[in-house]
Write a sequence for this structure.
């Protein structure tokens, strides 16, 4: 290993030397513990006898070979410091035991992918559709109700992939699957940054899931946590008896979630995190990384008032630049709730180098508008137009994520104003607005069936809802809308070009109606929305160059649970240079402009 590169934060392949790797018939074990007095190996691979590890290189690394070690055996490092010792899992280990056990597990990674065609064709999707289904694997579907009744990665491949294809999504985003001790953390407080969680199986089984996705035209994005790690003593915390990975000062070293913050100014920490991201992209063929809580990297403790963390920002730039060089077809996505500038600008232009940034402002404004009664919407009309005032400042992705359906926030359907029957037409209009607004899309599991119960990581989704007509109709509506998005270039090709969007009606005139044009190479689509609880009759549209409008979708069609009979090939001709349509209450319509 290049020690200088490791210490200066330039390494992206530290995992190829540190950790456990085959060595002849056995395995080589290596760890980095510069302040340790001595280090031993212990576990089932040693029959629970301490095996002393030898200091190597500059004396800060320790290694030993076990000729008789076998895959599946457990191990940990017994690190002596200050006259005592602590047993730690392997920071670079490729597997761990199922919680509450926490030793590392020897894992081989050999797997023959069958996705060569996919890997050659994939790209960052900037001019292609990107419609992400966000999934927590342990609560999408379960075998039973007991604590560990999880499907394996392989079993999920047989169930999840066909469902995602049917529903019209082109990518899956997995909530963090790095090993973590508490189910309630949803994977956001990790102990094993190189270990796929044992809840669903092994590294090879995860590779199988991703391979099946790729062979079915589905990309896979990993939610990764570069900001903080779990407090458990057996993991990274005070790994060698000192704050090796975390800040020594609790004022900046302990996060708002009670976890330890990574010290991004240390070269060894940078090399650790960069190598972890490189490992997931290279070894597992993930198509993108969603970086969690980037605001906590950009600013001290995520608070702009405390100032920019310059060293952490330089880490992000360095990492993203090298990742894009190594994996030009991958997507780097920032979950950033701040107004930090140039998040998606190229590094050479002073940006951070991400491909996309979550538009959390759009998400909050949109959901707030749909929670209001219609009269209040009229008074706050521009909640739904404001996003286009700042939209072209970044490459935004529009999320209705897991964070919006937990902790008393209510599910997406529940947020809609009014009673049960009134919520569905508004949710249909909401999703038409989302899927036709510029920007890539993300929707959390359960939203597509009109989930009424807030997400609980301990239970599977309420699939029995599909036995109820309104929920089943809503699912079929979402499927149709998703497939329309996939097949109409005007909805994705020019997402980040100003000529791809044009307001036709965004005036606050006492109504709740909106209209806009989406444009792509060779196609124009018109979207109209009426968020009032009264119909709009003879709504006037002035569309340059259009001779007639072909209705592609009406959210009020009876097939979705609405009141309007469906008329295939419904065409509206131009009358004296204008088009006139009737828009049902709490609904939206999408038309193709024909010359």
């Amino acid at each position: 290993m290049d020690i200088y590169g490791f210490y200066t934060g330039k390494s992206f392949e530290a995992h190829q030397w540190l950790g456990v790797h085959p060595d002849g018939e056995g395995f080589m074990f290596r760890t980095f513990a510069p302040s340790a007095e001595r280090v031993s190996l212990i576990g089932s691979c040693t029959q629970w006898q301490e095996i002393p590890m030898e200091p190597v290189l500059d004396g800060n690394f320790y290694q030993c070979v076990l000729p008789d070690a076998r895959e599946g055996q457990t191990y940990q490092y017994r690190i002596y410091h200050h006259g005592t010792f602590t047993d730690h899992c392997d920071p670079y280990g490729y597997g761990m035991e199922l919680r509450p056990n926490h030793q590392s597990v020897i894992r081989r990674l050999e797997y023959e992918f069958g996705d060569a065609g996919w890997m050659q064709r994939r790209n960052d999707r900037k001019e292609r559709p990107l419609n992400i289904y966000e999934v927590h694997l342990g609560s999408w579907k379960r075998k039973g109700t007991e604590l560990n009744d999880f499907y394996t990665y392989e079993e999920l491949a047989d169930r999840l992939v066909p469902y995602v294809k049917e529903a019209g999504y082109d990518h899956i985003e997995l909530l963090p699957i790095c090993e973590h001790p508490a189910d309630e953390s949803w994977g956001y407080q990790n102990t094993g940054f190189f270990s796929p969680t044992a809840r669903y199986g092994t590294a090879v089984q995860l590779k199988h899931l991703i391979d099946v996705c790729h062979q079915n035209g589905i990309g896979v994005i990993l939610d990764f946590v570069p900001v903080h790690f779990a407090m458990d003593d057996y993991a990274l915390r005070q790994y060698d008896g000192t704050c090796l990975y975390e800040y020594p000062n609790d004022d900046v070293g302990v996060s708002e979630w009670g976890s330890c913050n990574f010290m991004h100014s240390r070269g060894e920490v940078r090399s650790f995190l960069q190598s972890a991201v490189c490992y997931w992209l290279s070894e597992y063929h993930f198509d993108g990384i969603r970086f969690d809580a980037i605001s906590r990297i950009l600013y001290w403790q995520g608070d702009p008032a405390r100032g920019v963390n310059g060293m952490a920002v330089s880490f992000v730039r360095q990492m993203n630049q090298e990742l894009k060089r190594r994996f030009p077809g991958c997507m780097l996505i920032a979950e950033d709730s701040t107004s930090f500038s140039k998040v998606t600008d190229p590094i050479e232009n002073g940006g951070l180098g991400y491909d996309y940034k979550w538009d959390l402002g759009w998400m909050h404004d949109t959901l707030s508008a749909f929670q209001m009664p219609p009269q209040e919407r009229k008074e706050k009309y521009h909640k739904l137009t404001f996003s286009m005032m700042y939209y072209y400042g970044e490459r935004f992705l529009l999320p209705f994520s897991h964070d919006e359906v937990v902790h008393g926030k209510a599910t997406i359907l529940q947020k809609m104003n009014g009673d049960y029957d009134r919520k569905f037409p508004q949710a249909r209009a909401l999703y038409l607005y989302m899927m036709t607004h510029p920007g890539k899309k993300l929707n959390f599991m359960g939203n597509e069936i009109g989930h009424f119960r807030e997400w609980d990581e301990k239970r599977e989704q309420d699939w029995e809802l599909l036995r109820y007509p309104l929920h089943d109709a809503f699912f079929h509506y979402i499927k149709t809308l998703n497939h329309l998005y996939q097949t109409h270039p005007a909805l994705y090709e020019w997402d980040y070009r100003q000529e791809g969007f044009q307001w036709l009606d965004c005036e606050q005139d006492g109504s709740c109606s909106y209209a806009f044009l989406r444009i792509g190479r060779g196609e124009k689509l018109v979207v109209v929305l009426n968020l009032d609880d009264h119909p709009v009759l003879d709504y006037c549209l002035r569309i340059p160059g259009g001779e007639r409008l072909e209705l592609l979708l009406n959210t009020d069609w009876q097939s979705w649970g609405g009141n309007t009979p469906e008329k295939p090939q419904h065409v509206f001709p131009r009358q004296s240079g204008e088009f006139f349509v009737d828009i049902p209450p709490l609904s939206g319509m999408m038309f193709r402009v024909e010359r």
User: Anything to note?
Assistant: The first strand starts at residue 19 and ends at 23. The first helix runs from residue 3 to 7.
